[in-house]
Design brief:
This protein has 400 residues and is an alpha+beta fold. Helices cover 23% and strands 25% of the residues. It has two domains: 2-158, Chloramphenicol Acetyltransferase, CATH 3.30.559; 193-328 and 360-397, 2-Layer Sandwich (Chloramphenicol Acetyltransferase), CATH 3.30.559. 47% of the residues are buried.
């Protein structure tokens, strides 16, 4: 089935910036598990109403004057529904690709017209009454925060609630380099003294390539609270859940230099922007024994647009020894509800495989923190031998 916006008004083409174009070959796959099954007609009807606002999801990529553009043509989002007699899968580890309708052929060849769909939805209803909603979306048009906005808007439409307003104008965001290894900004002229500890050129991380594996584990709300008490510094500064999860894992990894994937909407005050708006920010520990403290010191800078613009200007790579990306705030799982509330979220194997393919050759572990109904799941793409060092961890080895 192809779901189109009910009555979409004409929308101009959206020209992708350098970062979005660089992500065009990547996809984002994630799935939500619901203990109560929603009506398929109600889901498709509400999806059609949401696509009137989220016009890029139903569009197609095309080449125009040497650039990639999104034709907001209301070409539609493929929606597949199947009934399964099998037991529901566990979302404690990456979800098999068969549960997804994965986006492919979404990049147009030179001289061709618009390519295939940029977003696909596959819904599996189990005989036991549970439901699995799996989404695959081109990374060229959206990142985690964007997709979190979309899923919550879909949920609102399903329940008959008003939709949020969104913007596709990324002109107010810092212009980030297109790829790793961009020329660093080396001048320190005009840099405030409080930023100078973070003034070091970005470059390709150098590490030892490792056999790729995905390590997953959960931390409940009470476990996160205990971590905050254990990792809290003497200065008494409050630690967020992300801080302590990163601190716990960074100590396991023996890392004192970490990169965070920062959402630029939050840093620049553009919460309704829909598109790719991410960059990496390095945090360097002054004291190697106190990783959590280093991360705590860098957090306030994320809210300063000037710092973000300056740091982004140094390059998109990073010279950290581990990169952290949190989706906990983006998806707010406790608030996501269709016929019933979402109980779990997980990445697709295909997405994990592509990230491992990119990061494993650099020897750089990549971590995504996912929300759950009570606490979070941590998805570490890194060396398999780390599994034995993390309490409650499971390991899945993937070919890349």
């Amino acid at each position: 089935m192809l779901v189109r916006a009910v009555a979409q008004s004409e929308h101009p083409d959206i020209v992708l910036d350098a970062v979005s174009s660089a992500f065009s070959a990547a996809t984002v796959e994630f799935a939500f598990f619901f203990e109560s099954a929603a009506s398929v007609p109600d889901l498709t009807t509400s999806l059609a109403s949401v696509l009137q606002t989220f016009v890029t999801l139903g569009g197609r990529l095309a080449r125009q004057d040497g650039r990639l553009v999104v034709k907001c043509s209301n070409a539609g989002v493929p929606f597949t529904h199947i009934a399964s007699d099998e037991a529901p899968p566990s979302l404690s580890e990456p979800l098999a690709s068969g549960f997804f309708d994965i986006v492919c052929d979404s990049i147009p060849s030179d001289g061709d017209g618009p390519a295939d769909a940029l977003a696909r939805v596959k819904l599996t209803t189990f005989a036991s009454g549970e439901q699995l909603m799996a989404l695959s979306v081109s990374h060229a048009i959206a990142d985690a925060r964007s997709l979190g906005s979309f899923v919550h808007a879909w949920s609102a439409a399903f329940k008959g609630q008003p939709l949020p307003s969104i913007s596709f104008d990324g002109s107010k965001l810092p212009v980030a380099p297109a790829a790793f290894g961009a020329p660093p900004v080396v001048s320190s002229e005009g840099i405030p003294d409080s930023w100078k500890d973070h003034h070091r050129p970005f470059g390709m991380p150098s590490g030892t390539p490792y056999a790729p594996a995905v390590i997953t584990y959960e931390r409940s709300s009470s476990a996160c609270k205990s971590l905050k008490e254990r990792l809290g510094g003497a200065d008494g500064a409050a630690l967020s859940t992300n801080d302590v999860l990163c601190g716990e894992l960074a100590r396991v990894l023996g890392s004192t230099s970490v990169s965070f994937v920062v959402d630029l909407r939050e840093a620049c005050g553009l919460p309704n922007y829909f598109g790719v708006a991410i960059a990496t920010q390095d945090a360097v520990a002054d004291s190697p024994a106190d990783v959590a403290s280093a991360m705590r010191r860098v957090v306030p800078f994320w809210r300063e647009r000037g710092f973000v613009e300056w740091k982004v200007g140094q390059g998109a790579g990073g010279c950290a020894t581990v990169t952290f990306n949190s989706w906990a705030r983006a998806f707010r799982l406790a608030e996501l509800c269709f016929a019933g509330p979402a109980s779990a979220m997980m990445l697709g194997e295909s997405m994990c495989r592509s990230r491992l393919k990119a990061f494993a050759v650099m020897g750089l572990p990549y971590v995504i923190i996912l929300p759950q109904r009570d606490g979070v799941s941590v998805c570490l793409m890194g060396p398999a031998e780390l599994c034995s060092q993390i309490e409650g961890a499971r390991c899945v080895k993937l070919d890349v």
